[in-house]
Task: structure prediction
Amino acid sequence: MIEKGIDCGSLIRSMGEAARSAGQVLAGASSARKAAALEAAAAAILGERDAILAANAEDMARASANGLSPAMLDRLRLDLARVEAMAAGVEAVAHLRDPVGRIIDETLRPNGLILQRVRVPLGVIGIIYESRPNVTADAGALCLKSGNAAILRGGSEAMASNRAIHAALVRGIVSEGLPEQSIQLVGVTDRAAVGAMLTAAGLIDIIVPRGGKSLVARVQEEARVPVLAHLDGINHVYIDAAADPAKAIDITVNAKMRRTGVCGAMETLLIDRAYPDPKALIGALIETGCVVRGDAAVQALDVRVTAASTEDWDTEYLDAIASVAIVDGIDGAMAHIARHGSHHTDAIVTEDKPTAERFLAGVDSAIVAHNASTQFADGGEFGMGAEIGISTGRLHARGPVALEGLTTYKWLVRGTGQTRP
Amino acid sequence: MIEKGIDCGSLIRSMGEAARSAGQVLAGASSARKAAALEAAAAAILGERDAILAANAEDMARASANGLSPAMLDRLRLDLARVEAMAAGVEAVAHLRDPVGRIIDETLRPNGLILQRVRVPLGVIGIIYESRPNVTADAGALCLKSGNAAILRGGSEAMASNRAIHAALVRGIVSEGLPEQSIQLVGVTDRAAVGAMLTAAGLIDIIVPRGGKSLVARVQEEARVPVLAHLDGINHVYIDAAADPAKAIDITVNAKMRRTGVCGAMETLLIDRAYPDPKALIGALIETGCVVRGDAAVQALDVRVTAASTEDWDTEYLDAIASVAIVDGIDGAMAHIARHGSHHTDAIVTEDKPTAERFLAGVDSAIVAHNASTQFADGGEFGMGAEIGISTGRLHARGPVALEGLTTYKWLVRGTGQTRP
Result:
């Protein structure tokens, strides 16, 4: 085990150094060249679809034999449509607006100095993910487009698929003259490689974990490199007394039931004690197939409501289950969210503007919505064209993160010989 | 020692919780109220100058008895002029533009949703500093103005001074109705308190160390909370073949000798092998009292040049010493900086625009300057009105950091009942 650790340490070190060199080239690559490289990568994925599907079949056979759950098998599985979607995703990233070189602001100082803040890549991004092989293409493309080198570490069960996708990606970018090591795949299944990435300060600038809660928790716990991640999406919808009842039902049902497994799904519904028709709202939610666990007041409204335990208010179900509480107006709602929320996405439904503004200002979450479903928490829906993840941290980037969040800035000082008095 | 650690842990925990509550109030406080509170704090510092000076005399007597160095005693010492400057500094921060509430960008989506990114405070800032008592007022004011709660931990040798300044600050802000715990001072001298702050993830959002290299190194090493800091300022000035000789001399002398102890001071001078008059440049630097350590080519230019060792290229002297190397044009200069620089501030002197642009684009430092002294690396000089520090990290904020760097943003989603298809 110690020997394995040492091997992984030196592996990640040499990958990190190669990534740093590649990153220096990528930082200076033009938008046109990066776009051409990604177009070539997308074409290579399509062109090598047979090899990718064959590799995936290998992974699937091994995973079935190892008794992976049907849900995990589905995440691992590729078919022609999924490979085509993957290539289309890379193609879409190729055409996104390049953040690198953008001038954030410019100031002329009284001494004649011109100061510009200009976006530059972060450098080297480490992506740690689980069984979905499409992340290889998706994350690799986002890193490259933003001028960053990527070190990808996918799940061991998807190793053959990831290798095939990675080979296609690299073939594409090399054909346009960008470095082979712009996107590297950690080729060992040893879990010590993850530990080595998490402690590779100075070699990897930021780690993005993409996967379930246990992966993200481990990453956040062990990392000595900054992490861009969210752990929980315990999202609330608050139905105010002044809510439009039709919007209340539409938004609640959509926020909970459109897709229950996404991080933007509502987990807790808070209803103002003064809301006129809570019974219809809860009934509508139950009729979509949602299990409702409520406090005493909610249980009194509908016999199908079961009792919520104290843990329910802190639970991210990611399932067709909702906890529902009656609260005393917006103050009760905000106090509940401050205590139980996870700073991801929370929404208010109300026709009362000042109440909406109080909620938008007072709720400390990455995304706060008024009269809109929490399921809009997504980079695509935010017009970013893609998403590397959603951050519930407060530093650097918050909420959906795409290309801009993978950059930093530097200050350019343009003078004519100025010295400081 | 274990008992002390436990005490400090629970002390910092309770201070962190109090700070979180105060921060929630501060996040919602209007710019006018924060400004009024800081004006009152500035007035209180002036009004309580006798108590502050008496407390400082106590610290000075103890420090002298303990044999502190003259440099440290000078940093610790307050007099009427320094107290007045401290009050003026708080007053100046009161009138800075408030970043909180500023809309970074706004997007109208095809579905009618309006997305706004709005600046909000980071939350709770921990400041760890050494003997200068003015940091108590300065850092406390910047945190409050940006809507953050502050936990200040100054040097034990300045404890009486810090207590007196802190008491005045708090008196001012409380008089304007803001929470007493907006700015807290860690009142124990036990070094374990620093350790407790560094590991207070979830209670403290960011740590800003202000002090010498050993403090910053310890903070970066031990912290589990994000840190905003720079460790070294190994800054370079590169004199290109096409440099104007008068600018070359002016900028080099200013960058090195204006103040040798600041982090923006030049430490290494790189001269293009094709630069016409290196002898005059080195002579001018030596004549200002600078010790020059050079490579063989530089030694050959002037008998007063001593030999640079390999460590010199990686040394931040913070003194009237410079290392000087002859390099092969801009590529040699950029390679030297990439290898030995600390990503702080580097400058080029040249009249050739394309060369300047290559340097500005290619040098990976927080600040890259053309025909300007490296000593402009300062929040005040950048028009920020103040500075909490200079960051050489890549995440969140880079270069001089003032109010904006103490904020994050949240996304506001304004809808009219939208649900996600």
Q: What stands out?
A: Confidence is low (pLDDT under 50) at residues 1-5 of chain B. The domain at 2-228+400-412 of chain B is CATH 3.40.605.10 (Aldehyde Dehydrogenase; Chain A, domain 1).
